[in-house]
Amino acid sequence: MAALSYGVNDPLAVKLWSKKLAVEALKETYFSRFLGETSDSLIQIKTESTKGAGDKITVGLRMQLNGAGVSGDGTLEGNEEALVTYSDSITLDQLRHAVRSSGRVSAQRVPFDLRQESLDGMKDWWADRLDTAFFNQICGYSAESDSRLTGNQAAVAPDAAHQMWGGTATNDQGLGSSDVFKLSLIDKCVEKAKTLSPAIRPLKHEGRDFYVMFLHPYQVTDVRLDATTAGSWFDIQKAAMQGGKVSDNPIFTGSLGVYNGVILHESTRITQGVHSANGTAVANTRRGVFCGAQASMIAFGQDNGPNKFTWVEELFDYENQLGVSAGTIFGLKKSRFNAKDFASVVVSTYAAAH
Questions:
Q1: Residues spanned by the domain of 252
Q2: Which of 161, 172, 220, 349 is the most exposed place for a label (fewest CB within 10 A)?
């Protein structure tokens, strides 16, 4: 009985493994559950660059009109209001990685398929790279200067209106051991989201509004131990399933629960704080992040996308060694307009192992 087989660099094999890598890599990421092409997504996929040439996408923002208008037969001419617009841009670049076998004898010695192992290795590498880039961006972790770890563009520190601290601290290096994460900080984030200009829009689920907040495990433990805020950790757990079927929505998948309309998620990739004077990482601090719709955006180049990476196989040394490379052209960043974060608030607290 004949078996279906694809040889090295077979055109069908390249397409098959390219799509397989993209699908499996994104499935392994934490940030993929927040991806979407609409303006209601936490991470909006910008599609302009997949349709034509160019390494930068510019996104416009129109502010709300706030003029008083003219009543009755008052003269409108000369009392018009000018539109106020701002822009943000995302830069695309290529990122690749590769693995290479030692040769046929090495392949003979092991009981696994080198092509499959290459796929698995690349899947794990890309999942880690994309998640790391997202959190470095959304946390404003400017201490990281390697663009390969920040979505192919610099991570920018949060502006003053979109950052707060535990306790009475006014910078990350000033946080003390008592300035830990408390539920009251989430209440302050919700208040800030509603009163900022422009306000931070919530995500929609079954007609209800929700925000999302990412916390480091150390911060989660501090919340569990917090007995000073109204409510308790058990109230959060009970609220997790209120308001309909949430298990079908990816923004709830793996969440800790819901507090004051904020879905809480835990991630070890939440960054440390950043020293405001010298720009270095601050030990025993973490930057939790409160997010609304369009807090971040991602774009891919032509012939790339969330479901398509490049996959290239080559033979070296008289076809004795197999090399596999995988990559994509993309850009990932936190949304910012007029030098201000658009839909995220960084909450820095003291955070250490318990």
A1: 158-295+341-350
A2: 161
